[in-house]
Every structure is written in C-alpha cells, then in structure tokens.
Amino acid sequence: MEELFADILVIGSGVAGSYAAMHAASRGAEVSLVTKTKLLSGSTRWAQGGIAFPSDPSDIPSHLMDTMKAGRGLVDERVSTAILTDALTEWKRLIELGITFDAHPALEGGHSKPRIQHIHGDESGLHLLTFLHHHLPPSVSILENQFAAELISCDGQLHGALLWKNGDPAEPVAVHAGATIIATGGIGQIYSFTTNPEEATGDGIALAYRAGAKVRDIELVQFHPTVLSNGGLISEACRGEGAVLLNGNRERFMLRYDEAGELAPRDIVSNSIYSEIIATGKVFLDLRPVNNLEHKFPTVYNSILNLGFNPLKEPIPIQPAAHFLMGGIATDEYGATSVANLFAAGEAASTGFHGANRLASNSLLEGLVMGSRAAEKAVASMPAAKRKIESNGVPGCAVQDQSVIRQIMERSASVMRDGKSLVNGFNEALSVKVVQATSAAEAETANMRLLALMVLKGALERKESRGSHSRSDYPQMSPDARHIDQQVENPGAIRDRRLESSGARDF
Ligand SMILES: Cc1cc2nc3c(=O)[nH]c(=O)nc-3n(C[C@H](O)[C@H](O)[C@H](O)COP(=O)(O)OP(=O)(O)OC[C@H]3O[C@@H](n4cnc5c(N)ncnc54)[C@H](O)[C@@H]3O)c2cc1C
Which end is more exposed in the chain, N or C (fewer Cβ atoms within 10 Å of the end residue's Cβ)? Predict the structure, then answer.
C-alpha cells in the first residue's frame, strides 16, 4: 500500500477545506488536501448569492439577530458571535490577498440590511474558490481523484485516512496525519430533487460517524424555495431585487404567509410554496420586475433560457429542493469534534451557527471562518503522524441503485414530513441490501444509505415543526429547543461487522 505522511490532512477542497489548508500551511504545517474529483468541486463553486459579511463591527449585533431569528431557537449565540467577529478579520485578510468584491452589498431574504458581498455577480462561489486555490502555497500537496474511504487510527487515536486512488479499492493510499479536518460538504444527493452537485453524498459525515464522532441535528435539511426543474437554482438575491412569487392562479401569495413577503426566511417561503403547489397546482417566479436581470444574474438568466423559458417575458415554474444541511458532525467553536485529532468545517459540520434554518449566504462565511479556526486549532494541538493502521469502520458497501435512496427520501423526508411516512422510509432504507463495496460509487451509495437512515431517525425523534423541519402531525414548535445527537455507541462493533459479505448494517 502507498503511504503518505502529513501534519494535517484536509478532506474536501471546497471553501472550508481550501481555506483550512491555506491557513494550516501558513502556520508551518505540511498539508495534504484531498478531493474525490477535481480541486474545483463541491457546492462552493455553484454558490450564486454571495457571502454575508457584517458590514462593520457595529453590524455584528444585527447580523447575529437575523441569524438567530432564522435559526428558530437552535442558534448557539456564543459560537455565532465568535464567527461573526472573526468574519471581519477574514474579510480584511482576503482583501489584503487581493480579492475584489463587487461595488455594492446586496440584500437577501432574512437579512435586515444589504450585507451580501458578491464576486463577479452571481458567480461568487466559483471566483472565491478559484482565488483560494490560486493562493495555496507549495507546502499543500493536492491529491485529486482520491476517494476518502475510511478514517484510520493508531493505538486507538485517529491518525488520518485511507484513500482509494481513482476511486478504486485496489489502489489504497494511507495518509498518516497528526490531525484530520473533514470538509466534505453536504448531503443533497440523498434526495432526487436537489441543488447540490454529485459530490454531495455525505461521505465525510459517514466516515466521522463510523469512527465514533457525534453527529448533531442531521434531520435539519434546508429546502431552497426557488429551484428550476433541472435542479438549477434561482438565487434569493433575485427576490431581493424585486422578483415575486405567483401561484397557479397567477396571484401573489407570500404576504398572506409572512409580512416580509418574498423576503421571509427560507423555511417560511419553502413551506408556503409547498402549500400553494398543493392548493393551486403550480408556483412561478416572476423575474420581470428585476432591472437588468441578464447582467446582474447572468447564470440564472442563461440557465432559464436553456430550459426554454424567457424570464424577461414570462413567469418561470419553480419548486423547493434539498439545498443545505444545517446539522452535521458536532463541533465546538474551533471545529474540534468529539473524537481526538478529528476536526470538521463547512457544511459537513454542525457548529450551531445555522440553528434550524440557515440565513441566506451565511454558509460561505462559516466555511471561511471555521476553515481558518479549525486549521489554527489542529496545528496547535496535533501529535506527530504515526505509521500503524487500525481501521475505523466500513469503507462502504454496495447497495442497489442510488436512485432507490433518493426516491425514499423524496417520498418520506422532504419539505413536509409526518411520522407514518418517516417510519415507512426508515424501514425501506434499512432493508436496502448491503455488501462489500468494490468502487467509490458503491461506497458513496452506502454512505447515502447511512445518511438517509440518520436523517429519517432524527426527523422521527424531532416531534415538532422547527425551521426547515416541518411535520404535519406536529405542526407546532415545542417550547424547549433541543438538539438531537446521534453517535455510535461502540465504533469497534461496526468495525467487526465490516467483513460480513451481506446483511451488514452500519446503523
Ligand atoms: C447551487 C448552490 C448555491 C449556493 N449559494 C450559496 C450562496 O450564495 N451563499 C452561501 O453562503 N452559500 C451558498 N450555498 C451553500 C454553500 O455553497 C455550501 O454550503 C458551501 O459551499 C459548502 O462548502 P464546503 O467547503 O463545506 O463543501 P463543498 O464546497 O461542497 O466541497 C466539498 C468537497 O469535498 C470533496 N469530497 C466529498 N466527499 C469526499 C470523499 N469521500 N473523499 C474526498 N473528497 C471528498 C468534494 O470533492 C469537494 O471538494 C449554495 C449551494 C448550492 C448547491
């Protein structure tokens, strides 16, 4: 087996992983930055809306208030204050490095003032990520097309990961690292209808869970309100610029649901659209009120044209789709997980910043700040890398087609949930056959199955409607806001089952 050594192993090259790698290297660490596809991969490159930086120190309380209002009682005020305070430091750092933000900050749903920074209009994510990659120093070794299959330990302590070169288990690469940072993004691919790219299969969360890390609030999945039939997203910023929602009778309806109308937080807009689709058959977004649409939002404009609609002439059919994971691997304010030497940042992590409903454009911000914080802590606390390898769980098991998982999730755990369909979905997902994986695609499917089971279990346990989690059988928000944690009691037991050729259940 090929063996590599690093001070810090970063899994995932989106905003959180790339920024973490940059920061760890700037603190003198030798870093391995791994991605299962290309360096420019993950959700970051598709982000359109921008980055929600507080405009100056006096804006922090208002940004915090907006974040907490959207998060419906589950936002951690202390962690969020720390993130918003550090945001200004990262903003200055990026400007010193030479990044250029567009001239005027924009307004988005749930924000009480315009504070969303764009880079080249609605291509903010792509330009941010390209900029970060351009600034990776030589002490960062980039490992592309390497699938992180499992975390490995030495003497009971986590020490890196096993990669499959080109996604092939026959080409294993062990990366021994003092500390590992998981930045593998979200889980949108467990749904049939999602804005997320194909990499978003929840691998890093599955790896961490199998290694014994605590996973928090994984049932809290945000559904973006305005998504085209091909999964293309129409940025919230379009509604900030005047776009309005119409129901099947071509009537505006949002003011009936919330006084902020089209600029209400995402959970309210998605639920309202869902209700109007049930009542009137369809919902449309009318972009004609947006001045200069084709120049301000070229990506949106072109993707609508590609679908055969002209947004300058007619309202466009839209619907909500799985978009962002608020829950994830539980971390403290420095990205440390419940497992020693294991850190998490970005969408794979649950810091408490997003609560039960992410405020628009707060995730790129969190990726930057927490990538930097996790790197700082990991470098300060890491032990030296060791040689011996102990496995930390199933590298993956083949199941049926990935679409089976997606259909189960779309049917049972989408915008509106209820106990009966959650139970049915859980039993269906549990009965999906599992065998030893022979490729990264099969391992991804096994990870998706595990994530689906966790989302369904968490959603069943959360007997209330809060933020993005809506249950028709529990329509009220319960008086006490609580987190739902899931953790393997005995990670070793999962490890022992990994060689079963069939019927192995990692849940
Ligand atoms: C269409 C769209 C628009 C969005 N718009 C905005 C916006 O305007 N503002 C905002 O703040 N947020 C936005 N978001 C959300 C935001 O983009 C994401 O939350 C954020 O980019 C996640 O960054 P990340 O670094 O955590 O993960 P990602 O950017 O998703 O990167 C994950 C990385 O992990 C790698 N990876 C995954 N599994 C493995 C594995 N097993 N082995 C090795 N590598 C692996 C992937 O290849 C990838 O490099 C948007 C999301 C989408 C999908």
Answer: N
Q: Which domain does 19 fall in, by range? A: 2-217+323-391
Residue 68 shares a structural domain with residue 183: yes
Half-sphere exposure of residue 434: CA atoms within 13 angstroms, side-chain side: 26
Q: Using CA atoms of 433, 434, 439, 445 in order, give the dihedral in degrees to the nearest 10.
A: 70
**Statement to judge: residues 255 and 348 lie in one domain:** no
- Compute the distance between CA of residue 290 and CA of residue 316 in angstroms, rounded to an integer: 13
Residues 370, 460 share a domain: no
Catalytic residue among 266, 471, 495, 498: 266
- The answer to whether residue 53 is domain-embedded is yes
CATH of the domain at 449: 1.20.58.100
Q: Are 7 and 130 found together in one domain?
A: yes
- CA distances from residue 275 to 46, 248, 269, 270, 415 in whole angstroms, order as listed: 28, 11, 10, 9, 10
Q: Both 41 and 123 in a single domain?
A: yes
Please choose from 11, 34, 40, 44 the residue to mutate so as to test ligand 1's pocket, defined by most ligand atoms within 8 A of CB.
44
Residues 55 and 161 grouped into a single domain = yes
> Is-catalytic flag, 266?
yes
Q: Based on the structure, what is the number of domains in the chain?
A: 3
User: 343 with 407, same domain?
Assistant: no
- Asked if residue 384 is part of any domain, the answer here is yes
- Return the SS3 of 178: strand
Closest by Cα among 408, 491, 494, 490 to 456: 408
CA of 347 to the centre of ligand 1 (A): 7
Quick one: which atom of ligand 1 is closest to the CA of 38? 47
CATH number at residue 140: 3.50.50.60
Q: In angstroms, what is the span from residue 244 Cα to ligand 1's centroid?
A: 28
324: Cβ below 6 Å to ligand 1? Answer: yes
Tell me, yes or no, whether 482 lies in a domain. no
Q: Which pTM was predicted?
A: 0.93
CB atoms inside a 10 Å sphere around CB 310: 11
Q: Is the CB of 195 under 6 A from ligand 1?
A: yes
Which pLDDT tens digits describe the chain residue by residue (507 residues)? 899 999 999 999 999 999 999 999 999 999 999 999 999 999 999 998 799 999 999 999 999 999 999 999 999 999 999 999 999 999 999 999 999 999 999 888 789 999 999 998 888 999 999 999 999 999 999 999 999 999 998 777 899 999 999 999 999 999 999 999 999 999 999 999 999 999 999 999 999 999 999 999 999 999 999 999 888 899 888 998 999 999 999 999 999 999 999 988 888 999 999 999 999 999 999 999 999 999 988 889 999 999 999 999 999 999 999 999 999 999 999 999 999 999 999 999 999 999 999 998 999 999 999 999 999 999 998 776 655 666 666 555 545 678 999 999 999 999 999 999 999 999 999 988 777 788 999 899 999 999 999 999 999 999 999 999 999 999 999 999 999 999 987 775 554 444 333 333 456
Report the relative pairing of strands 485-486 and 283-286 from DSSP bridges.
Answer: unpaired
